[in-house]
Structure formats: structure tokens, C-alpha cells
Design goal:
- The structure holds two protein chains of two kinds.
- Chain A is mostly helical.
- Chain A contains nine helices and two strands; from the N terminus they run H-H-H-H-H-H-H-E-E-H-H.
- A two-stranded antiparallel ribbon of chain A has the order 1-2.
- Chain A is flat and about 60 Å long.
- By secondary structure, chain B is mostly helical.
- Chain B has one domain.
- Helices cover 71% and strands 0% of the residues of chain B.
- Chain B is built from nine helices and no strands.
- The longest helix of chain B has 33 residues.
- The radius of gyration of chain B is 18 Å and the shape is globular.
- Chain B starts with 7 loop residues before the first helix and ends in a 9-residue tail after the last helix.
- The chains are: A mainly alpha, B mainly alpha.
- The interface between A and B is large, with 48 and 44 residues.
Chain lengths: 208, 198
């Protein structure tokens, strides 16, 4: 399999195959941590780190792992990196760690990390796998920041904990509650799908 | 390490209604969205999740209390929990294949999926973070499982009816599933205040 160029890899893994909106992977944490931008940023960096390094490691080991037990090996490698992330966050950002609660540990079962290992790192050399993991993680972080921008701005009137909207702004309490997360992600997927369909229809027209 | 003074029954009810795994904690949403297009399959997965959740919560509580804490290896707990879950699912599958072939035919295909369902690990982590005692943990697992089952069944029932509806372009599939979940979550917010366990 020819190795794809870095520029096309970036475009593919950040935009065209965006893990959250296109593949509907890793949505649990996307919904859960996005009521504050700080939490989203930390979570996004954690997932990016874990995806990048576990893809790299698994790709290095790809010729030595027996096919039948690869799932368990993948889980072990991923879990080791997630423990690193957990310890670092707990040591340097105890406040954020408390708010994220179990969701840092849950990066282990975040489908993005295992999805990249299974779909890409298994059959590609280490360096492209590293980049693939890095940019898939950044694509995830981008969506997280977009969702939390809307939720924190309208729900608390702040961004990264800094007040942006005046005190007279009526806060939308619904935005910090669970339902809003579902509505925002749903609308984003709808918007992207509708745009894609329209673009495909336009392409068909020009071909005729 | 003192268990919170909450009755296990309250924990059980709260984990179904007010702290529902999907509507309040967003756990297990991946398989919830992707396996909810058919009622029968969804219900099968829900049952399997409930069973595994009760067993893993019980087992992980024992391991946490009698192995991890005495040895002081708290930093390894995530890796131990996920190994326990993977091993338990594997053993359960072999056990069912040997002794309960009917049940295996119904639920067997879902079991491998469950290892990476974040609701299972999530239930374990919540139980550890909140210092539940053994009975509280088991009932929390049972309640969370039933709550998840309820949610995926409701979703599948709605989606089966909706298959015939005409939707605006692009809204079909996951997009509408998220929006429906949002509406259901709003309904569940109405229960908040009856019990609190956080």
C-alpha cells in the first residue's frame, strides 16, 4: 500500500473523515466534557497524545502481534498511555481532573484511539501512523472546542472561565445540561451531511 | 474510605432515572447510536450490557478493595479494571457457549462489543470515585445497566417507526438519532431532584 502524502493525510484525518462528526466515534466524551472550554482543551490534548503514541507504538509492533490477541495488546498499550495522561492531569491540573472525573480514564475505551489503531496503525509504518493519530486527535479536539465554545458562551457567559458577555445576559441554563450537547452535535452532523449531499448533487449536474 | 450514607435502593433507582448512563452521563453513546436501528438487536445488547455491568462491578469492587488498595497500586487501577472486564467477557462467552447455548445464540454476538463499551468501565470508575460499598456497587451496576437498556430500547423503537418517515436531506441516520436523544434527555431532566447520588 503506497504511503499517502502528509498534506492529504492531514486533510483526510482532520476534515474529510473527522472522527466525531463523520465516523460517529468518541462521542461519549465529546458530549460529556464540553460544558467548559478548559475541560475540552485538556481532554482534547489527552486524547491526541494517547492516539498519537498508541498508534506509533502499535505500528512498531504490528508485525510481532499475533492476529488473534491483537485486541488485548491494543487495549494494554492504550491503557498505559492513558494512565500517563491521567497522572499528569492529576498532578498539574487537579481542579480540571476533578471536573473530568472518570472521563480521563475512559479515554481507554474511546473508540477513536482503538479505531485508529485498528484501521490505520495495523497496516502502516510508524511515522505515518503517528501523524494519522496526531491529526485524528486534533480533528476531535477541534469539534470539542467548537461545541464547548457554544455551550460555555451561552450557558455561563464565559470562555475559558473569563467573562465575555455582560452580567445582564440571561444565561441559557439548558446549554450546560446534557440535552443541549445532543442537540448541538446532532445539528452539526445534519449540517455537514446536508452540505455533502448538496455538493454531490451539484457534481452530478455538471457531469450531465 | 467511608461509603456515602445513601440507601442502595436509592442508588439503584437514581442510576436508572436521574443519573441515567446515556441521558445524564453520556456513557456508551457509540454503541447506543450504532446498534439502535432494530428493536430486537438493541434489546439483546441492553440485556448483555446489564449482565456484564453487574458482574464487572462486583468483581472490580472486590479486586479494588482486596488487591489494589492493600498493594498500593492505585495508579494501575485503570489498566487492571479494563483487563478484568476483557477477561470476564471472554469467560462469560465461553461459559454461555458451553452451558447456555440458547442464551449464547441470542446474546453471544454482542459480548465482544461490550469490552469497549465505555458504560461498563464508566460504571466501575464511578463506583470507585464515589467510594460505594459492595451492595451499593452491585445495585449501581444493575441500575445503570437497566437504565442503558431502557434508553437503547426507547431509541430503537422510535427509529423503527421513523424508518418510514420522510426526513429533510442529511438529517437521517445519526443526526436525527442525536436530536431524539436530546429530547428524551430533556424529559429525563424533569426527574431531577427526586433523588441525587452525586
Amino acid at each position: 500500500m503506497p504511503v499517502e502524502k502528509t498534506s492529504s493525510l492531514i486533510k483526510r484525518s482532520v476534515f474529510i473523515e473527522n472522527q466525531v462528526l463523520r465516523q460517529i466515534l468518541g462521542v461519549c466524551s465529546t458530549l460529556a466534557v464540553t460544558n467548559a472550554m478548559t475541560n475540552s482543551l485538556v481532554m482534547g490534548l489527552g486524547v491526541t497524545f494517547a492516539t498519537m503514541l498508541s498508534s506509533f507504538t502499535l505500528s512498531l509492533m504490528r508485525n510481532y502481534i499475533p492476529h488473534r490477541i491483537r485486541m488485548i495488546v491494543q487495549t494494554l498499550v492504550i491503557a498505559s498511555y492513558v494512565i500517563l495522561v491521567d497522572i499528569v492531569i492529576r498532578a498539574y491540573l487537579p481542579g480540571v481532573s476533578k471536573q473530568l472525573g472518570p472521563y480521563v480514564g475512559l479515554i481507554i475505551t474511546n473508540c477513536i484511539v482503538m479505531g485508529r489503531a485498528e484501521a490505520y496503525a495495523q497496516k502502516n509504518p510508524p511515522l505515518p501512523s503517528l501523524l494519522d493519530g496526531l491529526f485524528s486527535g486534533l480533528g476531535y479536539m477541534m469539534i470539542l472546542l467548537m461545541v464547548s465554545f457554544i455551550r460555555e458562551l451561552l450557558g455561563f457567559g464565559t470562555l475559558f472561565g473569563i467573562r465575555i458577555l455582560p452580567d445582564s445576559f440571561e444565561k441559557w441554563t439548558i446549554m450546560v445540561m446534557p440535552p443541549a450537547a445532543f442537540f448541538i452535535i446532532g445539528s452539526m452532523i445534519w449540517f455537514l451531511n446536508a452540505r455533502k449531499l448538496k455538493r454531490e448533487a451539484a457534481k452530478e449536474d455538471t457531469r450531465k | 474510605m467511608i461509603a456515602p450514607p445513601i440507601s442502595p435502593v436509592i442508588i439503584f433507582l437514581a442510576s436508572i432515572i436521574t443519573s441515567n448512563m446515556i441521558f445524564a452521563n453520556f456513557l456508551g453513546t457509540c454503541s447506543y447510536i450504532s446498534v439502535s436501528s432494530e428493536f430486537k438487536t438493541a434489546s439483546g445488547l441492553g440485556k448483555a450490557v446489564t449482565m456484564v455491568m453487574v458482574l464487572t462491578n462486583a468483581l472490580n469492587w472486590l479486586i479494588y478493595r482486596f488487591v489494589i488498595l492493600p498493594l498500593g497500586i492505585d495508579y494501575l487501577r485503570n489498566i487492571i479494571f479494563i483487563m478484568v472486564i476483557a477477561a470476564l467477557v471472554q469467560i462469560l462467552e465461553m461459559f454461555m457457549d458451553r452451558f447456555l447455548p440458547d442464551l449464547h445464540a441470542n446474546l453471544g454476538i454482542f459480548l465482544p462489543l461490550i469490552t469497549v463499551n465505555c458504560a461498563i468501565l464508566g460504571a466501575t470508575l464511578f463506583m470507585v470515585i464515589r467510594n460505594y460499598n459492595f451492595i451499593q456497587s452491585v445495585l449501581f451496576g444493575l441500575g445503570s445497566g437497566i437504565g442503558w437498556w431502557l434508553a437503547i430500547c426507547m431509541m430503537a423503537a422510535v427509529r423503527e417507526r421513523m424508518a418510514k418517515a420522510k426526513l429533510p436531506p442529511g438529517l437521517g441516520g445519526p443526526a436525527i438519532a442525536f436530536i431524539i436523544t436530546g429530547i428524551m434527555a430533556m424529559a429525563f431532566v424533569g426527574f431531577s431532584g427526586i433523588f441525587t447520588i452525586q
